[in-house]
Amino acid sequence: SFNDISNKLPINFLLNDSKGLTKKSNNEFISKYTVKLDDLDRTIEVTSYYSFFNKASKNNSLQDIGGIYNYSINDIRLNLSNFYSRADVSYPFKNIDLMLNAGVKYSYINALTEGKYNLNNLTNLFESPFYSNFIDFDYLESNLAIYSEFKKKLGKFQIGGGLRWENLKYNSKVEQYNKEIKYASGNIFPSLNFLYNITSNISFVSSYSKKISSPSYSDLDPNNSGYFDKYNSSTGNPLLKPSFSNNYEAKITAFNYVFIGANYSKIKDANMVVFEVQDNSILTNKTIKTFSEVN
Fold first, then answer.
1. What is the rounded average pLDDT of the residues 83-93?
2. Is 180 strand, coil or helix?
């Protein structure tokens, strides 16, 4: 067990000294074009966005374990491209208090990470660094979404709802592990909401929605993303799955400020942070795992 291993270690004291240097750059481009179709506020809006982000970080860790020195270094470089383009149509019918919205969106993400490591070496690595382990991570995601929604007023009532179809695809690959994870799925996500004005300042609101949340590239990246030494590390998990949730909420609001309510979510394949210690190991690793059902 962990306690048995710890009791056998001849540790009189433990000192850590960690240093890091990070360089970042980010470039963004965004364009927006709006066409007003008539004098009734019916519009078409087209938006495009692109960004390129890169980060280079070098870290070292010196650990003094009862007079025995452990040297660790890493060098991690990230290049991230992010693009989306969307077109939205807004179509109000003011004479019957009805609003219709519809749109389409395409998004694309590409993340490339190169990690170099030499961990827990008894040789001083800081003066003449060299690396013994390498992790190259490649992540590519695309998502096509088509959506529509409506809002309708009926006296003190207001109802709304929508449908969203998403076709999500992503590949994550770790070169050194010879492992590639592929995901592709098309799903429909409905939503419905209801509002009743009890008085001019007090309202009752209820809603339902089904949503998807895909893991971010940083959650999938197996490169070390945080503090590291002989006893601690922090890595992503390339085996994560997208999360699907059914969400319910009901509440009473007053003056658009104070509210009391309740909500409930049932999540399939929830991704949650865990701390792991392997058998016969003293290393604690912070990572993320997928749990099949969470309420």
1. 94
2. strand
Give the Cα separation of 1 and 104 in Å (integer): 55
- Between β-strands 68-93 and 284-294, what pairing exists: parallel, antiparallel or unpaired? unpaired
Tokens at 14, concatenated: 């433990």
- The amino acid at 151: K
| CA atoms of 22 and 239, how far apart (whole Å) | 28
- 207, two tokens: 């809603």
Give the pair of three-digit tokens for residue 13: 């004291």
Please give the mean pLDDT across all residues of the chain.
Answer: 89
Angle ∠(189,192,193) on CA atoms, nearest 5: 145
Reported confidence tier of residue 165, pLDDT bands at 50, 70, 90: very high
- Tokens standing for residue 121: 């070496």
Asked if 183 contacts 242 with a C-beta cutoff of 8 angstroms, the reply is: yes
For 287, residues 6+ apart whose C-beta sits below 8 A from its C-beta are: 234, 235, 236, 237, 273, 274, 276
Q: Which two tokens stand for residue 145?
A: 């979404």
- The string over 124-146, giving b where at least 16 C-beta atoms fall within 10 Å of a residue's C-beta and e elsewhere, is ebeeeeeeeeebebbbbbbbebe
Q: How far is CA 87 from CA 32, 69, 169, in A?
A: 10, 59, 21
Q: What average pLDDT does this structure show over 165-180? A: 89
Tens digits of per-residue pLDDT, 101-142? 999 999 999 999 999 999 888 889 988 889 999 999 999 999
Q: How many residues appear in the chain?
A: 295
What pLDDT, on a 0 to 100 scale, did the predictor assign at position 235?
A: 87
H helix or E strand, kind and range, residue 16: strand 14-36
